[in-house]
Write a structure and sequence with these properties.
Elements (H helix, E strand, L loop, with lengths): L7 E2 L4 E2 L20 H4 L3 H12 L15 H6 L16 H7 L10 H23 L5 H26 L2 E2 L13 E2 L1 H18 L16 H15 L5 H13 L23 E5 L21 H5 L22 H5 L7 H5 E3 L16 E3 L24 E5 H14 L4 H14 L10 H11 L6 H7 L3 H4 L23 H6 L10
Antiparallel strand pairs: 1-2, 3-4, 5-8, 6-7
Helix pairs in contact: 2-5, 2-6, 5-6, 6-7, 7-8, 8-9, 9-13, 13-14, 13-15
C-alpha cells in the first residue's frame, strides 16, 4: 500500500508530495508565524522546500481548470490515439492540437502554468540554500542536485511543447518579465544544468523504498539522453550512450519478465522502473474544489469507456476520451504480449456502453480505470485513482542504447542484443537487425500511451510523412515544421506586455 504524509503550508503556498511505501517523506508544521528568511535556514525546513518542488509533477492531469496529462498531450498529436469525448468541442484544445490548428486562446495554458510553478519552486530551493545555517555540505549538494534536475524536467516540458520560452534561474520580481530564449538556447541551458548535476555525483543510482519518487542518477541519465536525442546533438551522443550503458551495467535495473504487470499497482517501482510520478488512493483527499492536494489522478477517468458498467471485465467507467486507434491495435503481432497490456478491447466484450465521438471500442489499458484502484480515496473518486505515471523504464534505456550505438557506429552486436531483449520479453522470438527504423518501430510498440511517439517522429524526421490526414476525416491537416512549437497561450502574451514573441505556428 502507498502511504503518504501531506503538508498544507498555506502561508508559503507549499503543497507537498510524499513518497510511496513509506512514512518518511516528511512530516512538518505550517510556518505561519515566521518570515521566509528566518524559516528557510534549517535543514528540516529546506527539505520541505525540496519536497514542495516535486509537487507540480502531479498537477497537469487536472489543474488550472484544464486536463493536461503530459503523456496524453503529446500522444494526441501523434498517430496512436484519437481525442474522443462527446464531440469536437469537448476538450476543444485537444482536438485543435490533434489537427495541428491550435490557437493562442485554445492551447495548454494550464501546463504552461504548472511547469513554471515547478521552476519557481526549484529556484526557491536554490535561494534558500544560500540562507542555510545548519545544512551540511553533503546535504546541501543533495538538495541542490534534486532542485536542478527537477527544474530541467519542468523546462523540458516547456521546451518541447513551446520551444521559444521565457527562461530564468532566479525568481522574478515585479513586473515579472523574463527574457525569451530561442529553443536552441534553452537547450544549451538545461543540458548544462544536467551536466552540473552529473558532475556533482551526489544522487544514488536507485533510491531506497522510503525515498521512491525522488530523482536519481539513473533518472538524470535518462533525462539527459532524452533531451540530447531530441535535440539531435551528435556531440553528446557518446556521453548519452555511456550513461545508458552505466544503467545497463548496474544491478539495480532490469526488464521485468511479464510486460502485463508493469502498469498494475503491484508493478510500481519494479526493477524496470527508473522514474514515476506517484499517485495514490489511500486516504486521498484530492477534490474538485482542491485539485492541487496530493492524492490520485484523474487520467483513468478521462480515458475509460463512457457509462461502462462499473466492475464489468474488471473495469470502471470513464468519460470516453482517447480511444486507441484500430491501426494501433493492428500493428501488434497476435503473440505480442504488449497488445492486450496496452489496449483494452471493450468493443469485443459485447458489453453495452455509450460509444462517444471517434470510438473504436479500444481504450488505453495501461492507465485504465481498473475496478478497486480508487477504493481507498476519501474525497472525489474520479480524481483519485492510484495509477503512478511511468516516466522512464529500463526498456527505454535498452532502446536508447541500441539507437545511440547505431548512430555512433558502435558495437552492433550489443545494439542487436538490446533491441531483441525488449522484443523477447514481449514474446517475440524473431530477431531483428538494429537499424534505426527497427528501433523506432520497437519504441512505437513498447511505449504506446507513454508520451514518447510524437517526439520520436519529430526528432527522426518522420513526422511530416506519418502525421498526415487520415481516412476518417478526423485529422485533415499535415504536420509541418511550423507545427513543432505550439502557440504560446494568449494570456501569457498579454501578461508579458509586449516582451514575448508568438511562435509562428
Amino acid at each position: 500500500m502507498k502511504q503518504y504524509n501531506i503538508l498544507l503550508a498555506g502561508a508559503l503556498s507549499l503543497a507537498l508530495i510524499n513518497s510511496g511505501c513509506s512514512d518518511s517523506f516528511l512530516e512538518v508544521e505550517s510556518p505561519v508565524n515566521e518570515t521566509i528568511e528566518s524559516y528557510f535556514t534549517t535543514d528540516e525546513h529546506i527539505q520541505e522546500a525540496v519536497v514542495a518542488a516535486y509537487d507540480p509533477l502531479h498537477w497537469p492531469d487536472w489543474a488550472n481548470n484544464e486536463y493536461n496529462p503530459v503523456n496524453i498531450m503529446s500522444d494526441i498529436m501523434a498517430d496512436d490515439i484519437w481525442v474522443g469525448g462527446q464531440d469536437k468541442t469537448d476538450n476543444r484544445t485537444w482536438h485543435l492540437m490533434m489537427n495541428y490548428e491550435a490557437i493562442p486562446t485554445y492551447v495548454m495554458a494550464g501546463l504552461w502554468t504548472d511547469a513554471y510553478s515547478g521552476v519557481k519552486r526549484c529556484n526557491d530551493v536554490m535561494l534558500y540554500l544560500t540562507w542555510a545555517e545548519d545544512v551540511t555540505e553533503e546535504n546541501a549538494n543533495y538538495y541542490k542536485a534534486q532542485a536542478l534536475t527537477l527544474r530541467v524536467f519542468y523546462y523540458n516540458w516547456l521546451w518541447k511543447f513551446w520551444g521559444n520560452i521565457p527562461y530564468y534561474t532566479d525568481n522574478l520580481t515585479s513586473p515579472y518579465l523574463a527574457e525569451q530564449l530561442k529553443a536552441d538556447d534553452v537547450y544549451n541551458n538545461i543540458i548544462t544544468d544536467l551536466e552540473t548535476v552529473i558532475d556533482m555525483d551526489v544522487l544514488p543510482m536507485k533510491e531506497t523504498s522510503d525515498n521512491y519518487g525522488r530523482v536519481t542518477k539513473a533518472m538524470v541519465y535518462m533525462l539527459y539522453a532524452e533531451i540530447v536525442m531530441y535535440q539531435n546533438d551528435e556531440s553528446r551522443f557518446a556521453k548519452a550512450l555511456q550513461y545508458m550503458q552505466e544503467i545497463i551495467a548496474s544491478p539495480d535495473y532490469d526488464l521485468v519478465e511479464d510486460y502485463t504487470s508493469i502498469f498494475k499497482e503491484e508493478g510500481e517501482w519494479s526493477k524496470e522502473s527508473i522514474f514515476e510520478v506517484i499517485y495514490k488512493d489511500d486516504n486521498a483527499v484530492r477534490s474538485w474544489s482542491s485539485p492541487l492536494v496530493a492524492g490520485g489522478t484523474v487520467l483513468p477517468t478521462l480515458i475509460s469507456p463512457h457509462t461502462w458498467p462499473d466492475g464489468t471485465e474488471g473495469h470502471d467507467q470513464g468519460w470516453g476520451f482517447c480511444p486507441v486507434r484500430q491501426e494501433t491495435y493492428d500493428m501488434y503481432a497476435n503473440n505480442d504480449t504488449r497488445r492486450d497490456a496496452t489496449c483494452f478491447n471493450a468493443g469485443a466484450t459485447g458489453v453495452t456502453y455509450n460509444k462517444r465521438y471517434q470510438d473504436t471500442g479500444l481504450f488505453l489499458e495501461k492507465y485504465a480505470a481498473i475496478s478497486g484502484n480508487n477504493k481507498d480515496q476519501k474525497a472525489d473518486a474520479q480524481l483519485n485513482w492510484n495509477n503512478n505515471l511511468r516516466i522512464y523504464r529500463y526498456s527505454e534505456t535498452l532502446l536508447n542504447a541500441a539507437e545511440l550505438l547505431v548512430r555512433t557506429n558502435g558495437n552492433l552486436t550489443d545494439a542487436k542484443k538490446y533491441l531483441n531483449d525488449v522484443r523477447k520479453r514481449a514474446g517475440l522470438q524473431t530477431e531483428l537487425e538494429p537499424t534505426i527504423d527497427n528501433i523506432i518501430n520497437e519504441r512505437h510498440l513498447e511505449f504506446v500511451g507513454e508520451g514518447k511517439r510524437y517526439w520520436d517522429l519529430i526528432r527522426t524526421g518522420k513526422a511530416s510523412t506519418v502525421l498526415v490526414p487520415d481516412s476518417y476525416g478526423y485529422r485533415t491537416n499535415t504536420w509541418t515544421e511550423s507545427k513543432k512549437y505550439l502557440p504560446i497561450p494568449q494570456s501569457e502574451i498579454d501578461a508579458a506586455q509586449g516582451t514575448l514573441t508568438q511562435n509562428n505556428y
